[in-house]
Amino acid sequence: LHLDVEFSGEVLPRDTNAYTGLFLVTPEAIYxxxxxxANGAAPExxxxxxxxxxxxxxxxxxxxxxxxxxxxxxxxxxxxxxQAQVLxxxxxxxxxxxxxxxxxxxxxxxxxxxxxxxxTRPLTILTRRVKQIRKGDYKSPVPLVGTGEVRQLxxxxxxxxxxxxxxLTVLAGTERRLSLACKxxxxxxxxxxxNSGAILWFDPGADKPRTRTVRFRELLRRT
Length: 223
Description:
The structure is a single chain. This protein is of the alpha+beta class. 45% of the residues lie in helices and 17% in strands. The chain has helices at 44-48, 83-86, 88-134, 149-185, 216-222, and strands spanning 20-25, 30-33, 57-59, 62-68, 75-82, 189-192, 199-202, 212-214. The longest helix has 47 residues, at 88-134. It is rod-shaped and about 135 Å long. The chain starts with 19 loop residues before the first strand and ends with a helix. The model is unreliable at 7-14 (pLDDT under 50).
């Protein structure tokens, strides 16, 4: 503030809310001039230390700042306003930033959920199909799900499953023909374990083939 004191304190300019006052500070007392009434808003310590570097203070819920009047020794202009009114714009800005931050967080959560769903759903379907294959279901097709590399993985997995199913079909036909041949020739299949000395054998032509374990002498006797 810069004032050339050429007027009476009675005509001191003030805002519409009368939040500005002119004080004369002397060693004996402090005089408040003008029509504005501070009502104790300006503490004596602030008026006594009135200079260009005096920081604002909070007094009775008001934010108070004091500055000396150039060319007028002891004159100090004080301006005060309710702290809530001064910080209203900051409060609104903080609330606005909070709403924006909340919006971005919710948006990130929604986007993350959608991306997670789009990525994990195809993998869940493929995992379910793997469990079916583990139980012996090689005939059911592998669904083409997902996009990009996940879809390529599903396609490769489907081709592998179809190849395994074809191999198992051929192997089953071969085993069926071998079983018919063994049954017609009345042949047994056997295997000798040199470590334990046991002989594993079974009749592939039987209605319910099962593996049996015998010793070599018993095998000779049966033969």
